[in-house]
Specification:
By secondary structure, this protein is α+β, with helices and mostly antiparallel strands. Among the domains are: 1-39; 51-162, no CATH class; 191-230 and 357-534, no CATH class. It has 23 helices and 16 strands. The strands form 6 sheets. Strands 7, 8, 9, 10, 11 and 12 form a 6-stranded mixed β-sheet that branches. It has a two-stranded antiparallel ribbon with strand order 1-4. The radius of gyration is 31 Å and the shape is globular. The two termini are 35 Å apart. InterPro entries: Tn3_Tnp_DDE_dom. GO terms for molecular function: transposase activity. It holds the Pfam family DDE_Tnp_Tn3.
Length: 535
């Protein structure tokens, strides 16, 4: 057996063997359950029935719960919610069958899954198709609770259990924006053609890569389906680069930051003009650019006004600097001031030689905050006994920072990455986004793909990644064990309308991507809509 495995003689039969093992496991489970039920005495069966009996207090509560609280559900939770609403009628039905049995036509068999099937329908199933009323009630309650935690079922009247999709585009607003948004995102109303195209693309890619792996000694797939890459050797710096660095470093002038800001303002007058008064009127302050440069320096270096303030110099008076910062510095004015800087950088011949500006890299930088701050959080691994935050920044291939965001503590970058990309200070959206492992998640991958952006994360834990396939019977050679995940296209079709609303809401700025990514996950696991997007 080992000889055959080493020479990959068993690979063509891996899929068939996996299906056979799954069938044997299912049959064994059924026989084991039957054997366990056969071991139960009459007294033990009575105890089991008593445990499943719904107490009168709970029964009364279940009857009024759907009436007092108005619940809603998405596509995945609709079936469970309907069963929950029909549960009072099931519990109150006067049956002629021995308690606690009722006719099977009163219940929704689609709600009963897993081990509940044996308790509800019996094992083997009863000849008269009757069901255990109490077991069915507990089954519906468990499914309802799980759906509520995953927000597949929600209560709009509650702040904790409300509909997480309430802030998305909906109603007349969604119908008005929908045609233009779908055209801009190149997304169809019916997903079948798009899914068929992606199925062909994925199938061809897996077959092509699987064929290359046979002749590539630097990549191997072990018996568990884990991919291992041979480490890439670092390229040494050529002597010409060392010489160039030695020549250019002494040429760089040593200048003060305020002088740099003032000189840039002289190149780009629109930068200073972007800082408008909160009142909306035209500023009458003399030498306003000098005050703006001083405020930018004070707050970017976190040194305060004392090193910059000068008595007798009107633009640098402490009261003047405080007034300018309070009335002219706002998120919208700072963002507007960045636009002409981005455009100027994009027009530089050297920057154009570096790239086209359509490739962006997103990464975070953690640092300790020595003073109390709203975004500072503790993390002993990175900050020791102090507090810190993360500066998440996007930079394009023209050497220009395009957008940034302050993140509390060391929260996972993937929750904020999409907001950083769509919160750009100017220019076009990137077509390709590169990030490290910290910014990667399947949900973010799916969102960016739907938004028309190619996501290319540099994964540090490649052996831990699982591949996905659509065609379960396809043979991908060495990648058969790697592509062991099965994509459920039916789930995508069921949730397609909600997927379109989510993507269009992010694209139009109606909702933050952070709120969407948080909405698509519960207790560390994706919701049904999150799984559909991640697929």
């Amino acid at each position: 057996m080992g000889w055959l495995r080493e020479r990959k003689a068993l690979l063509p039969g891996v899929t068939t063997l996996a299906r056979l093992v799954a069938k044997i496991r299912e049959d064994t489970t059924k026989r084991l359950w039957g054997a366990l039920e056969g071991l139960l005495t009459i007294g033990q069966r009575y105890v089991l029935d008593q445990m499943l009996e719904v107490p009168p207090t709970v029964s009364g509560f279940l009857k009024v719960l759907p009436e007092v609280i108005e619940f809603g559900a998405n596509a995945e939770g609709t079936l469970v919610l309907e069963a929950m609403k029909a549960l009072p009628a099931v519990l109150g039905y006067r049956s002629r069958l021995p308690a606690p049995l009722i006719p099977g036509r009163l219940v929704d068999a689609g709600v009963v899954t897993g081990p509940w099937q044996h308790l509800v329908f019996g094992h083997p199933a009863r000849e008269d198709a009757s069901v255990n009323r109490h077991a069915y009630a507990f089954c519906v309650l468990e499914r309802f609770w799980r759906a509520l935690k995953r927000r597949e079922i929600y209560a709009d009247a509650s702040t904790k259990w409300r509909n997480p999709q309430a802030e998305l585009l909906e109603g007349v607003q969604w119908e008005t924006i929908r045609p233009d948004a779908l055209i801009a995102l190149s997304l169809p109303d019916d997903p079948d053609a798009l899914l068929a195209e992606h199925s062909r693309t994925l199938d061809a890619a897996l077959k092509e890569v699987g064929g290359r792996l046979i002749a590539n000694p630097d990549v191997r797939v072990d018996g568990e389906g884990k991919i291992h890459l041979t480490g890439v050797k670092a390229i040494e710096e050529p002597p010409s680069l060392v010489d160039l660095r030695a020549r250019t470093t002494p040429m760089l002038p040593r200048v003060e930051l305020p002088e740099v800001i003032l000189e840039v303002m002289s190149w780009v007058p629109e930068m200073a003009d972007s800082f408008t008064a909160v009142s909306g009127g035209r500023s009458r302050l003399k030498d306003l650019p000098v005050s703006i440069a001083a405020c930018l320096t004070a707050h970017s270096l976190n040194v305060g006004y004392r090193p910059l303030a000068k008595k007798g110099v009107e633009p640098l008076e402490r009261s003047r600097l405080s007034h300018v910062y309070q009335n002219y510095f706002r998120p919208e004015t700072l963002s507007l001031a960045n636009v002409p800087l981005v455009e100027m950088q994009a027009n530089l011949p050297l920057a154009q030689a570096w790239g086209g500006g359509l490739v962006a890299a997103v990464d975070g930088m953690r640092f300790v905050v020595p003073v109390p701050a709203a975004f500072a959080r503790p993390n002993r691994k990175y900050f020791g006994s102090k507090r810190g935050m993360t500066w998440l920044n996007a930079m394009n291939d023209r050497g220009m920072g395009r957008g940034a965001k302050v993140v509390s503590g060391t929260i996972r970058d993937s929750l904020h990455m999409v907001d950083v990309i769509f919160g750009l200070d100017g220019g076009d959206l990137p077509e390709i986004v590169v990030s490290d492992t910290g910014s990667y998640s399947d949900v973010v991958f799916g969102l960016l793909e739907l938004l028309g952006i190619s996501y290319r994360p540099a994964l540090a834990d490649l052996p831990d990644q699982k591949g996905w396939r659509i065609n379960a019977s396809a043979d991908y050679g060495p990648l058969n064990t790697f592509a062991r995940g099965k994509i459920d296209l039916r789930k995508i079709r069921r949730n397609w309308e909600d997927i379109l609303r989510v993507v269009a809401s992010i694209y139009t700025g109606t909702v933050r991507a952070y709120d969407v990514v948080t909405m698509l996950q519960r207790d560390g696991h994706p919701t049904a809509l999150g799984e559909a997007i991640a697929s």
